[in-house]
Amino acid sequence: MKADSITDRKSNKKFMLLSVIGIIMVVDLHCDFALNLLNFVIPYESFFIPLFIFISGYFNKVDDRTDLKGYLKRKAKKLLLPYLVISILMFWLEWAINSCKYGSLQPVTQETLLIPFVNVITVGYPVLLMSPMWYVIAFFGVTLVYAVLKKLIGSKWNSIVALSVFCLLNILVVWSAKTFKDSQVFFLLLLPMKTVFLLPFMELGGIYREKIEPKTNDIRIGWKIIMLMALIALNVARMKILPDPGDIEFGGLYALLGFSSPYYVTPLISSVIGILFWITLVEVLGKVFYENRVVNYISENTYYIMGFHLLCFNLINCVLLFINNNIHKLPGFDIGSLRSMPYYIWDRYPLFKFIYLILGVAGSLLIKLVFDKIIRAVRKSRPQT
Hints:
Blueprint lengths: L5 H6 L1 H18 L17 H12 L8 H35 L7 H11 L13 H20 L5 H22 L3 H5 L1 H27 L4 H21 L24 H20 L7 H8 L1 H25 L8 H6 L9 H32 L4
Helix pairs in contact: 2-3, 2-11, 2-12, 2-13, 3-9, 4-6, 4-13, 6-9, 7-9, 10-11, 13-15
């Protein structure tokens, strides 16, 4: 049985659009909310990483008949091989960009070379320029654990029981993160903890496909609009009830930071509300975008946008640094922040946020095109057997 079919993904326009919304939110967050897509009532960091897992769970069809070895081999090739190539590329690009920022070649020490290996199995990224790619390692962990569990349990798998167990484990991870966040042992266990935290959303994706979606297709638009309003009202009420409105968010998931709510169940509730809201909104308004070629192309390359948009931001910053140092002093251009923050953007003028957003997405797609051409050229150069 084929799991996670590529054909299914390309033909399901609703979920293609959902993945586009998710990746645009990632880039938008990192350029200080140029678009701000309802972030003030359904904050990005309250659901968008669980959304990506939910989407994968929707297409995941692993069961006891799945060739587990072949499935995991395909997943490793799809996720980890490009991650490895991008990591090597990004290590040297970050070195070059830092040298540009400081105006001199930066030293490469033994420690500099060793730190990336530790980072990959903890926070999930080797260098800061590809820090959003922490998700790839965590996602592979979720895929691995989920596939093994489904294979072992087989026909006895009960989705409701599995979801209940996963939700309890999710809450346990939040409790652990709040209780032991300064522990070195906890830091070393970040990867399995992130995997456990994300497991409920993999199962939710399958439950939605099998049990919920067939019923929502018959719901009238009017009722869906009422549901959207109810979800917004629920989140607004939660913001007022919690000690701080930001408590419904949980930024810094790469290191399980940002769980500021006093209630351990808050991240789970926030994630479900955010996913329900956006999947319903896509059902109400999304059809106009279903056949849009740009939208479809972005949806097929979310991996590379996740991987390259910070690189694009920093290339823009290097150009601005050159202008600031050699042509014209840019008002509010903070060289100290530029050197210390991979996420730094020059936002003196609101328009520049949109420039970062557009070039972050378009530049990543351009890099992917170059990537594809290099791969095709390498394949053609191989001797035919």
